[in-house]
Design goal:
This protein is an all-alpha fold. It is 60% helix and 0% strand.
């Protein structure tokens, strides 16, 4: 039985390009070497990078990208907790996207990954707040917490004073 021909090359009168012959062990070594790109492997073998992938698939080798578990953090959302707090407070999607420099689709993907519910359609008071309102409300909340902490400490000091006097 003859080898199948590359008809496109055969029409031009050229022999089929099978690339440089290497042992399966050598090909496997190059495939698993993550420092080599598909283009570099192809250059060494004299074939296109797509052909490198096809040969690997034929040999039953795993995908190079499955071998490395890639965790893609939210690159632009530098503070996921802040983003979630903004969503829960009701900051508008456009404001959040502008703050973090991301698209609405990226924010939607982030929201889905973190289990946050979607928004109601249309403008409403609960989902059209600004980042400025969020920051002011957060500052007011922190101030209230700090004041409550100081009040507790003062009450404890007064109670201690009266215990000492009595």
């Amino acid at each position: 039985m003859t080898e199948p021909t590359d008809y496109r090359r055969a029409r031009k009168g050229k022999p089929a390009n099978r690339g440089k012959r290497v042992s399966q062990a050598e090909f496997r070594r190059m495939w698993h070497d993550q420092s080599l790109t598909l283009e570099q492997i192809g250059t060494r073998l004299g074939i296109h990078k797509a052909t490198v992938s096809q040969r690997a698939r034929t040999l039953g080798l795993p995908s190079r990208y499955e071998a490395i578990t890639v965790h893609r953090p939210d690159r632009k959302i530098h503070d996921p907790a802040l983003c979630i707090a903004m969503l829960r407070f009701g900051v508008s999607i456009a404001e959040i996207c502008g703050h973090f420099g991301i698209s609405a689709n990226s924010l939607k993907s982030f929201r889905n990954r973190h289990g946050e519910p979607g928004r109601k359609r249309g403008k409403c008071k609960e989902t059209s707040r600004t980042v400025r309102e969020f920051i002011e409300a957060r500052a007011a909340q922190r101030l209230a917490e700090r004041m409550a902490e100081v009040a507790r400490a003062e009450r404890a000091a007064v109670a201690e004073h009266w215990r000492a006097v009595a």
